[in-house]
Amino acid sequence: MKDFPAKRVLEWALLLPLAIPAYIGAYAFVDFWEYAGPFQTFLRDIFGWSSARDYWFPEVRSRMVAIVIIASSLYPYVYLLARAAYREQSNNAIEVSRALGCGPWASFFRVGLPLARPAIVAGTVVVMMETLNDFGTVEYFAVQTLTTGIFSAWLEGSNVGAAAQIACVVFVLILGLLLLERFSRRNIRVYQGANNNKKPSPVALTGTARYLALITCTVPVLIGFLMPFLIILNHAIGNFEQWHDPQVLAAVLTTLWVAGMAALITVIGATILIYGIRLSRAALPRLLLPATSIGYVAPGAVLGLGTLIVMARFDHWLADSLETLFGIDVGLLITGTSGAVIFAYCVRFFTLAYGSIDAGFGRVSPNLGMAARSLGYGPAAVLRYVHAPLLRTSVLTAILLVFVDSVKELPATLLLRPFGFNTLATHVYDFASLEDIKGAAVAALLIILVSTVAVFILAKASKGQN
Length: 466
Prior knowledge:
The protein has 466 residues and is mainly α. Helix content is 74%, strand content 1%. Helix 2 crosses helix 4, helix 8 runs antiparallel to helix 9 and helix 14 packs across helix 15. The model has no long low-confidence stretch (mean pLDDT 80).
């Protein structure tokens, strides 16, 4: 609702931190702090500080720094939803409040903010769920969370029961967050009048206010995107030999394989499910449909552990059955293979594909399908010749979103990957855990570049909606 320098650029630049996974931002921040070492020495010399009791510098490996890094990476979820909510608000309500004696700040807190509250709360819940899912950042900063407890109990203590118990606690917390969000707005109803929706006219800021607005909107981009991107880019350019490192090339091929297969399987499954529900009038599929989103709200560590336990039992049952029937010991066929990783990706990111394709189907008139059926085409032919061309953009968007999130996924991959199996995310984690940020630079840069493409598509889609 205000105009200030570089507003149109910052409006989309504020989405860029979504392209930097929090664990990569953590590695870059620690590296940046090491660059600041000479500056700290300079301050000691200037002020004559001789011991740690004479001054104070923030502890880099602390809970507070982990909070800042995660917030810098995840705030765009709140920003995107809140921005859409404010753009949809009619200026009539603000003008009425001003006519009744409210100043600019009073109109914001008493009218604008309550109208945008559902979107803000929804974005905050997403951030909380993504924070529970984070492993790389908190593990790197030695912050003990429930997610790190799952890995400690399973990988270090070899205690599957304890890891499963912690996973259950995390899952209950996730469900509690969702129920709390719904309960908090149980009696709130927000309606926008379609016929009286007057878009706000931005007011140009003057004097100091315009520069304060510019600085306020620039700082999140600097911390959340530019700083980690430039540090990773500097290491990637300075270590050119990594670009043809066999380990990096193997990680790239593995990532393309598992993320690509997960994207194709997920999008095909979502398309068939949505199309089947549109054709069927049965109530049961529609009632069960919300269950497909559980995978996305469940943290990767919880999903990975659940997948591992279930698949291991199925594999043992299958191996025992085959040995009993044919006398052949086939071993474990699924557990410890890329199939388990692909399955976890499909379950976790099915909601992304479903949301994009469902929105595409919603823009296609049912009359087109009915007309094709009246001409003798079967359901499969209608899907192929009528809906598929119209859904091309939605399908490509869904494939890209699932692919990018699969590339960035770390906790589930760490739990399910076979020996010698590395994606770009696990390659970055392996080197960073050894304090070798330079060795992880090229893989981290590739993740950032792939994720940036998805952010641009998200920004374009958001622009089209507004």
